[in-house]
Amino acid sequence: MSRTLRGGRLAVAWFVTVTSAEFLGFIVPAVAGALTVDSAVALPVLLLAGAVEGAVLGAGQALVLRRAVPTVSARHWVTATAAAASFAYLIGLAPSMWATQLSSRPPWVLWPAAAILGLALLCSIGFAQWLVLRRHFSRSAFWIATTAGAWLLGLAVFLGVTMPLWQPGQRLPTTITIGVLGGFLMAATTSAVTALAVRRLPSLG
Length: 205
Known about the structure:
Helices cover 82% and strands 0% of the residues. It is mainly α. The chain has one domain. The protein starts with 6 loop residues before the first helix and ends with a helix.
């Protein structure tokens, strides 16, 4: 039987497992995006790939979380994370999908809309997972803010690494390699931040 995880051991196990899970999951949309760029099927393919990424991430998180809080349903956690990840991809792709329509809108309309969409993207996974956590902890709303902050930092790291390296006309293997590198650094960033929060959960039970 696995030992119950608490404190530092829980945080370390979460960081290692969740970094690996998110990195492996992110490879799917990274490859899918590179293969379907400017394709008519790019949107549905990326939404499906996002759900796969979320499911892998959720499975890795649940593997560790259940060693700290055995009553949490792994199935509910994985399903919530997969659905939220696909939703986040939809929000992230919205500006490019509707670029023509948005270009004619005044800035006072675009900026508030962008802020709302950005907030929804950052909070999507944390909110979906909180819907599972609240069944077990009455004071778990901090998970939403922590996860949003983790993804904000993670996406900043991803864009900071990949955007200068991605160049027009690059070979497909190079494009994918850069995306995978950025995905690994993003995974490590998000899991490090959420590891600080997950160690608080057992004490709330």
